[in-house]
Amino acid sequence: MKHIPIIPVPIEEAELALFEERKKIYPRSQKGWFASRRWVMVALTQLLFYGTVWLGWNDRQAVLFDLVARKFYIFGFVFWPQDFIYLAVLLVISALSLFLFTAIAGRLFCGYACPQTVYTEIFLWVESKVEGDRNARIKLDAGPLTAHKFSLKFIKHFIWLMIGLWTGFTFVGYFTPIRQLASEIFSFTLGPWEIFWLLFYGFATYGNAGWLREQVCKYMCPYARFQSAMFDKDTLIVTYDTERGEPRGSRNKKVDFKAKGLGSCVDCGICVQVCPTGIDIRNGLQYECIACGLCIDGCDQVMDKMGYEPGLIRYTTEHALTRKLDQKAMWARVFRLRTLIYSGILALIILATAVSLFNHIPLKVDVIRDRTMPKITEMGAIENVYRLQVMNTQESARRYSVEIIGLPGATILNNPVVEVKSANATAVPIRVRVPANTLQPGSNRIRFEIKDLDAPDVKVIEKAVFLVPR
């Protein structure tokens, strides 16, 4: 057997072979239909995030997740830990919505509503305003560190930090009342947890949107990895028409490219320059693609200048491309059995949740029998003691009556009226007496009816056990 010499590889070369060096991406500013819609989504999402926290409702913050008091306020609703089912339903609705949108049109969420995408777009806008367009930024980074370069970098990063810290402040404001939080900041009385989360979320925004950018989408986001499981050949995706575009090549506008054997692609590279993740869509669908559609805008503008038909890069499906389907046939396959099932299940869950919220009773009661042994009076009557936890989820103080139903002769010895403050809970002891020889020895069913004195329709019936000594 011939001996093959082993040549040692330097450690530096081995590292270069294993790890790809990051090349900074300088996305080119782009105008067009998809670019405009992206900025509309940026405006809507940020108006929702930054604005909702300042809305008031009944002398309180409209949306507040008070973890200390274990109460969640969402406009007119007050949710307690017992309402955890609504959080579970919200997560199910979010997951099904993601599956539905992905099955229909790919990574729409990533391209238009994902926080990473939105804040990266905002940070890139700041960078372009401070440092200039794409070519100016490339030239600036390639040049030596001068006073002018340092000042531009300082201004950019300062604005980024302010945006990040304001984002962290707003995030914490959903858990600590925003006006109280602002007052504590200015009076230097901010608590340690508020400080931690404000700085953590602020610097996470700064780091992810300012430094990591597309690296989060490519290496950290799990959605990019399993999205292919939700795609099929009838999913709308950003696609380059290879048959029409190849072979690509530069040419003069007046040249008959078909006579020269060329495709419609002029190989200008605009589609790569505008891409936030730096991919070349002409190489086929890649997991890094966030379906923002900026390459469509860029390519359509070049096609328009050349006098060619637009749509060389477009939103279409694999079946529509390979089978030459028209728009009507394509959309008929987009809304197929799979997406209709997703839509039906999602609509049913949303409808059921809406009905449940509409019929939501603003009163919750827990009944716990005291562990002490039943008391026997001189007349032979039996007494049991219960602890009633009455929760009022309304925005006003309420008075509730407590009655025993389904147990003849049972009486409540102490005050049967419970007063509870707005959005609060009160625990009260209730002594129940049953005449002698009324019940069988052992465990007997008993029911408490708690009713709002000012709104008789608001009532709750809770079961408990009445013990009779043997």
Automatic annotation (TrEMBL):
<feature type="domain" description="4Fe-4S ferredoxin-type">
    <location>
        <begin position="253"/>
        <end position="284"/>
    </location>
</feature>
<dbReference type="Pfam" id="PF13746">
    <property type="entry name" value="Fer4_18"/>
</dbReference>
<keyword id="KW-0479">Metal-binding</keyword>
<keyword id="KW-0249">Electron transport</keyword>
<feature type="transmembrane region" description="Helical">
    <location>
        <begin position="158"/>
        <end position="175"/>
    </location>
</feature>
<dbReference type="InterPro" id="IPR032879">
    <property type="entry name" value="FixG_C"/>
</dbReference>
<dbReference type="Pfam" id="PF11614">
    <property type="entry name" value="FixG_C"/>
</dbReference>
<dbReference type="GO" id="GO:0051539">
    <property type="term" value="F:4 iron, 4 sulfur cluster binding"/>
</dbReference>
<dbReference type="InterPro" id="IPR009051">
    <property type="entry name" value="Helical_ferredxn"/>
</dbReference>
<keyword id="KW-0813">Transport</keyword>
<keyword id="KW-0812">Transmembrane</keyword>
<dbReference type="InterPro" id="IPR013783">
    <property type="entry name" value="Ig-like_fold"/>
</dbReference>
<keyword id="KW-0472">Membrane</keyword>
<feature type="transmembrane region" description="Helical">
    <location>
        <begin position="340"/>
        <end position="361"/>
    </location>
</feature>
<dbReference type="InterPro" id="IPR017896">
    <property type="entry name" value="4Fe4S_Fe-S-bd"/>
</dbReference>
<dbReference type="GO" id="GO:0005886">
    <property type="term" value="C:plasma membrane"/>
</dbReference>
<keyword id="KW-0411">Iron-sulfur</keyword>
<feature type="transmembrane region" description="Helical">
    <location>
        <begin position="39"/>
        <end position="57"/>
    </location>
</feature>
<keyword id="KW-1133">Transmembrane helix</keyword>
<dbReference type="InterPro" id="IPR051684">
    <property type="entry name" value="Electron_Trans/Redox"/>
</dbReference>
<feature type="transmembrane region" description="Helical">
    <location>
        <begin position="84"/>
        <end position="105"/>
    </location>
</feature>
<protein>
    <submittedName>
        <fullName>Cytochrome c oxidase accessory protein CcoG</fullName>
    </submittedName>
</protein>
<keyword id="KW-0004">4Fe-4S</keyword>
<feature type="transmembrane region" description="Helical">
    <location>
        <begin position="195"/>
        <end position="212"/>
    </location>
</feature>
<dbReference type="InterPro" id="IPR014116">
    <property type="entry name" value="Cyt_c_oxidase_cbb3_FixG"/>
</dbReference>
<dbReference type="GO" id="GO:0046872">
    <property type="term" value="F:metal ion binding"/>
</dbReference>
<dbReference type="InterPro" id="IPR017900">
    <property type="entry name" value="4Fe4S_Fe_S_CS"/>
</dbReference>
<dbReference type="Pfam" id="PF12801">
    <property type="entry name" value="Fer4_5"/>
</dbReference>
<keyword id="KW-0408">Iron</keyword>
